[in-house]
Amino acid sequence: MSHISPDPRTARRLIREAAGWYSQLCSGVASAEDKLAWQHWLAQGWEQQWAWSRVEHLQQQLTLAPAQITHTALEASSEVVHARRRALLKGLGIFAFTMPLAWVGWRTQPWQPILADYSTATGERREWMLADGTRLVLNTNSLVNVSFDASARTLHLIRGEIYIETGHADPQQRPLIIRTAQASLRALGTQFIVRQYAASTWLGVIQHAVEVTSAAGHPIFQVPAGQQLMLTAQGVTSRQALTGYEASWLRGMLVVTDWRLADLVTELNRYRRGVLRCDPQLADQRISGAFPLDQPDIAIDAIQTALPQVHVDYFTRYWVSLRLAT
Q1: Which of 116, 144, 211, 250 has its CA 20 to 30 A from that of 110?
Q2: What pLDDT score was predicted for residue 22?
Q3: Are 320 and 310 in contact (CB under 8 A)?
Q4: How far apart are CA 115 and CA 15, in angstroms?
Q5: Is the Cα dihedral 319, 312, 298, 259 positive or negative?
Q6: DSSP letters along 33-74, please?
């Protein structure tokens, strides 16, 4: 597969088109005209061929379903299969897979990084300069969609964590808005970090201020520089001063002061593939230090050095356990 890819917005459109063609051709009702139309689409250029290869590759991965899921799917009646396919098409407006869908969430989740305008894999950090001069940095395993229209410049944080330096090259001076599941955040000429948790949004303001509009309809308020807060569907659950290390991941480091070991392990798990486990007996051990995010093995060794009571068991490269030394 070629390492050259279209720009994110074009790639997103082409993947949607390719997925639609894939669904049509594998539906069992594709006509000869459909196949000719698909060949015409594919022959338009390398970008279409790139998108088609991505869809084929991902479909191959998705067919490797867990045995129990596959068994359940094979037992499903033809009418149930068609109903699930129609539901997926209606919900996503993109495509339906030909294999019966016993677990829709498992099946559709791998498409998110391909369909997002900007994305990073586990352990990856990437930086972009947007058309208005805004600097956008994605932390590990993050997804962002970008929409610039006549009224606003909007970034939708779907998953993960981003750093923003507001650009000032927009001739229309449209507001820059970051949308999360819990809030709409308006930049007021600023630098800030936003993280989307499963059920909350974290905001840390480094310069100037950010205006917060809660999705729950709470009054609009501003968060000044040097402040951080956690916002849930019920409102703000915590608000305090920044420690000064919240942006250390931009330099490839995780700097912590007096953290629970269990919390440190949870954070390190964001940056490495596999599982890093902490024995419950060690969960409340306190630790401070600077841990390299791009070298997880060194970070684990640093934990053992800082806490001699910790013993590290490497079952495999991807399964590591921290237990109480005996």
Answers
A1: 250
A2: 81
A3: no
A4: 7
A5: positive
A6: HHHHHHHHHHTT-HHHHHHHHHHHHHHHHHT---HHHHHHHH
Question: Within a 10 A sphere around the Cβ of 79, how many other Cβ atoms?
Answer: 8
CA 158 to chain centre: 6
The residue type at 80: V
Non-local CB neighbours of 257 within 8 Å, separated by 6+ positions: 243, 245, 288
Residue 295's alpha-carbon distances to 102, 121, 158, 254, in angstroms, are 38, 15, 26, 11
Element (H, E) at 14: helix 8-25
Calculate ∠ Cα 136-254-114, nearest 5°.
Answer: 40
End-to-end CA distance of the chain: 50
Distance CA 202, CA 246 (A): 11
How does strand 310-316 pair with strand 275-278? unpaired
> In sequence order, what are the residues at sequence separation of 6 or more whose Cβ sits closer than 8 angstroms to the Cβ of residue 212?
183, 184, 185, 186, 203, 220, 221, 222, 223, 229, 231
**Inter-CA distances, 105 with 62, 83, 91, Å:** 12, 16, 12
Task: Evaluate if residue 326 carries a pLDDT over 70.
Answer: yes
pLDDT digits (tens, 9 = 90+) for 108-145: 455 566 677 899 999 999 999 998 899 999 999 999 99
Residue percentage of the chain with pLDDT more than 70: 80
Q: Which of 124, 84, 137 is nearest to 107 (CA)?
A: 84
Structure tokens at 43: 């022959």
pLDDT value at 269 more than 70? yes
The mean pLDDT value for 211-228 works out to 91
Q: Tokens representing 166?
A: 């507001």
Distance CA 187, CA 190 (A): 6
